[in-house]
Amino acid sequence: MNNEMNKNKELFDKVIKLERNKNNYFVNLSHELRTPLNVISSTQQLLLEFNKRKNGIERDRLDYHINVMRNNTKRLLNLINNIIDTSKVEHGNYHIDLRDEDIVYIVEEAALDMKDYIEANNIELIIDPHIEEKIIECDRREIERCIINLIDNARKFTPPGGKIEVKIYDLKEKIKITVRDTGSGIDVDNQKYIFDRFNQVIDHSSESKGESGLGLTITKHIIDMHNGEIFVESELNKGSTFTIILPVKVNKI
């Protein structure tokens, strides 16, 4: 009888924990949705007020506010795409297009596309490949997406004056990509949950960081589909290093 009661209690505790984790995920997701919507709404109201004035609004200032709205619209679209794509992966409906590509060029270009955006936040972005070229079998668009997700994740948790480094290493039959930051770091107990959207620890500052965990979740799915691996090493208040290992040739199962 006692054994049966203990089993039931363990099952009940697991159900409660799962529900709590799901609630945490949806709270963070709600914050991430609300932030760009608030920015778009407030910018729209500001433009309407400027438009009521006799002299209207200067062209440069109008361009600036339109750009703010555009960036936050892209952020919303990216979030929605992550939600849709994560669902596709979990139901086996997500596919990658494998081709021979220069992984060094892919990583460098993806990082360079983020450089102005990162440095606008007063964060230094260093791109330091240890090889000049390496042809591997991969889906270029999806690997670019992974690099952008990791750099943007690093940006969210790195304070002004910090640094993000992107490096690539040749491991012969594999390649290694690292994204290291000097941000706030991740507690050891939470590192094992970092790629699980329903186990993301609730973060009350996520509204400003924009972190629901979906970017990391879809990144892991994509790397798994390439028969690769991804993991994190981190220390609180010292930063994190995300590492991707990809095979030169993907052996389809």
Describe it:
By secondary structure, the protein is an alpha+beta fold. It has one domain: Histidine kinase-like ATPase, C-terminal domain (Heat Shock Protein 90, 2-Layer Sandwich), CATH 3.30.565.10. It has helices at residues 2-52, 59-90, 103-119, 140-156, 188-191, 206-209, 214-225, and strands spanning 99-102, 124-129, 135-138, 163-170, 174-181, 229-235, 239-247. The strands form 2 sheets. A 5-stranded mixed sheet has the order 2-4-5-7-6, with helices on one face. Strands 1-3 form a two-stranded antiparallel sheet. The radius of gyration is 21 Å and the shape is globular. The N and C termini lie far apart (45 Å). The model is unreliable at 200-212 (pLDDT under 50).
Tags for this entry?
alpha+beta; globular; 7 strands; Heat Shock Protein 90
CATH homologous group name = Histidine kinase-like ATPase, C-terminal domain
Order of helices and strands: HHEHEEHEEHHHEE
The CATH C-level name is Alpha Beta
Overall body shape: globular
Strand order of the largest sheet: 2-4-5-7-6
